[in-house]
Amino acid sequence: MKPFSPLPQDDERAYSYAIGGVFINFGALEMISFRWVEVLGKDPVVMRDLAIDMNLGQRINFIVMLITRSSWAPEIQTRSISLWKKVAVESNIRNTIAHNPFVWGKNKEGQPVSGIANAKKMKGGGPYEYKLVTADEIAGAALRAGELCRDLSEILNSQTIQNDANTELQSTIMPVSEGIAQPPRRS
Q: How far is residue 64's CA from residue 77's CA, in Å, rounded to a whole number?
């Protein structure tokens, strides 16, 4: 039995691909964040184990602190911190998608609308004025998360550091540029 959906099949597919892309690419960002902690930390296993218990926002702050304490060139540090701050901003849409309802209905002009409503904007007695997150916005977030995966992987792969035993530790992160989920654009 097919689940109930008020959306036309093309819209349903667009949301499915877009939401899937967001979660696939943010899953990759989560994994990349663990690798950054391993590479930047003095004891990779202990550092990773500590980072596993942090939420993404805490882990980003931790990574930024490790970057500032690293021996990486200042321009690499600046670029890395900028990218991780973008991850923090982009994670807001992931959280909105994960923790809020999908709604549909008609707008004030009587046109059909659908999207993800941010329940935090629904405090008080209403009526509520909030903007729905659309499939196109979600697809854009998926693509931006994928680009961040690629850029962060490239930086980490380009950096070779020395661990305490004075042996080279090179990132073994897999290039993700070919595996970035790219939802199809709606026509």
A: 9
Written as tens digits, the pLDDT of the chain (187 aa) is 566 666 778 888 899 999 999 999 999 999 999 999 988 988 877 887 888 889 999 999 999 999 999 999 999 999 999 999 999 999 999 999 999 988 888 888 888 888 998 888 777 887 777 788 999 999 999 999 999 999 999 999 888 543 333 344 443 334 444 445 554 455 4
Q: Would you list the domain boundaries of the chain?
A: 9-97+135-168
Give residue for tokens 């509520």: 128
- Distant-in-sequence, close-in-space partners of 75: CB < 8 Å, separation ≥ 6: none
pTM for this model (two decimals): 0.78
